[in-house]
Design brief:
mainly alpha; 45 residues
Length: 45
């Protein structure tokens, strides 16, 4: 399961709000400037 799917199972409806779903990383090390990862980010709470 993805992080989003796990949160949906764990939390009550409308108790989680996701911001900036389409933000992309800005790392230029290790060739990462060419990597495009949809939903790349960190889940915190």
């Amino acid at each position: 399961l993805t992080a989003r799917e796990r949160l949906k199972l764990l939390l009550d409806d409308a108790s989680f709000e996701e911001w900036d779903m389409f933000v992309e990383h800005r790392c230029h090390d290790f060739g990462m400037e060419q990597a495009k990862v949809p939903g790349d980010g960190v889940v915190t709470g």
